[in-house]
Amino acid sequence: MNNILLDSTISYDKEGIYKLTLNSDSIININNSNIKLYLVTENDIKITINIKGKVEIYNFTKNNITVDLNLLEKAKIEFYQMTITNNNTTNILNAYHKHKDTISNLICNGISYDKGNLKFIVNGYVKKGMINSICNQTSRIVNLDAAKSLIEPNLFIEEFDSLANHSAYTGPFDKKILFYLKTKGISEDNAYKLLLKGLFKLNELPKDYEELIDKMLLEILRR
Questions:
Q1: Could you give the maximum distance between any two Cα atoms of the chain, in Å?
Q2: Is it the case that residue 179 has pLDDT exceeding 50?
Q3: Contact at 8 Å (CB) between 83 and 91?
Q4: Is 179 or 156 the better-scoring residue by pLDDT?
């Protein structure tokens, strides 16, 4: 990944695809639509993202993070959180609808392995007067080995004229899916590999970003 940001604020004003590695608490201002941002967050940090326009953000981490998403004028955010850990790790995501007609879709996927303990706390806030707001959450954590996980999906909705949904799953891969793959001549190891990679293949990812995720998944498969 490129563009390492330390103790700073960065703004994106032009549409395009950007990559950013964050090592410390940061503020990101997104002031246009058609922006796609690929993040890697290192260390235990907090990120504040102020959004004006339609954007996609992908964040990969192994650490404790807090992400505050402030949805301002014309904001529509697709936020993909991807976490792999074998430690005690908590990810907190907050979506604050601060303008009417705003949309947040938070998709959190995680893998907890070895003796890891992964926790997602996902909060959506729609205050009174933020009409026509849509607040969606989809969270999934797959546990391997003796790992544990917990998802807390919270919706704090004060506006009647809004829409909010959440779904959450924690646990191992479905044995029926593993059995099906093995009936197709796929070994159990390769079946796990396919399912692990499929968990994070949300869209076409940049090569270096995909290589980073593949490296982490390879560590899991070699455990």
A1: 56
A2: yes
A3: yes
A4: 156
Cα 153 from Cα 169, distance rounded (Å)? 11
Residue carrying the six token digits 């955010």: 77
Contacts of 17 (CB under 8 A, 6+ apart): 36, 37, 38, 206
CA dist 37 and 16 (Å) reads: 8
Q: What share of the chain is helix, strand, coil (3-state, %, to 5)?
A: 15, 55, 30
Which residues are bridge partners to 105 per DSSP?
78, 136
- Rounded Cα–Cα distance for residues 168 and 149 (Å): 11
Specify the amino acid at residue 134. I
CA distances from 126 to 53, 73, 91 (A): 18, 14, 21
Per the structure block, which two tokens stand in for 24?
């410390």
What residues are paired with 46 via a beta bridge?
A: 66
Q: What does pTM read for this prediction?
A: 0.90
Give me the pLDDT at residue 1, please.
Answer: 47
Indicate whether 26 belongs to any domain: yes
Q: Given pLDDT bands bounded at 50, 70 and 90, which one contains residue 19?
A: very high
The count of domains in the chain is: 1
Tell me, yes or no, whether 69 lies in a domain: yes
| Full domain range(s) for residue 36 | 4-172
Amino acid at 104: S
Nearby residues of 90 by Cβ (< 8 Å), 6 or more positions away: 64, 118, 119, 120, 121
H-assigned helices in the chain: 175-183, 188-200, 207-221
Helix or strand holding residue 117 (H, E): strand 117-126
